[in-house]
């Protein structure tokens, strides 16, 4: 029995829209990344069950690779978008509620970073078919990261409505340059619009 199938692995298509045709592009990039984090966190939980009960097959190895790639490549870019560009802009508006929310989120962000450093070697070992002992923080990481993203959207992202068109364009330009510095072949592409009711 396979809990993980190729169709159950989230698409890793680029999530970078073009602000020239989408002034809400920067926020959509960040929300799209959060959606993928939610999807991959669910995949991580299924992978855990798969390995425990059914062992490692090619689908499990592929799933481990996708999770590794996204959290090692895209998530650091996402954090840079927030820490270097979005959050300083939002703080410049002088909203005390946003400042307090960002301060409150810092300990959880640090804790998730520690948990990822425990989960990462396990995923790498799944790819190599030489599984290490399951990290105790695996399920906690996979449930707390989506909850962290929910809090960030609920308590901080709403303030992005105050960005001017010029600020939004500059923010997305910085995002594009950040990604092209990692992969020069990468170009801006539109992110899919979120479904109604999505968090």
Task: Provide a quick synopsis of the model.
This protein is mainly alpha-helical and 199 residues long.
Keywords:
single chain; 199 residues; mainly alpha; Four Helix Bundle (Hemerythrin (Met), subunit A); 67% helix
Task: Explain what the structure shows.
The chain has 199 residues and is mainly alpha-helical. The protein has a single domain, classed as nmb1532 protein domain like (Four Helix Bundle (Hemerythrin (Met), subunit A), Up-down Bundle). It has helices at residues 25-54, 58-92, 96-127, 138-155, 165-182. Mean pLDDT is 86; it is low at 12-23 and 188-199. Pfam families: Hemerythrin. Residues 27-157 form the Hemerythrin-like domain. This is Hemerythrin HHE cation binding domain-containing protein. It comes from Trinickia caryophylli (Paraburkholderia caryophylli). Residues 176-199 are annotated as: Disordered.
Give the helices and strands as they follow along the chain: HHHHH
Poorly predicted runs of 5 or more residues: 12-23, 188-199
Kindly report the average pLDDT value: 86
Q: What is the alpha-carbon Rg in Å?
A: 18 Å
Please state the structural category. Answer: mainly alpha
Strand content: under 5%
Q: Give the count of structural domains.
A: 1
Pfam family, one: Hemerythrin
InterPro entries: Hemerythrin-like
Region (Disordered): 176-199
Protein name: Hemerythrin HHE cation binding domain-containing protein
Q: Strands, helices and their partners?
A:
Layout: H1 25-54, H2 58-92, H3 96-127, H4 138-155, H5 165-182
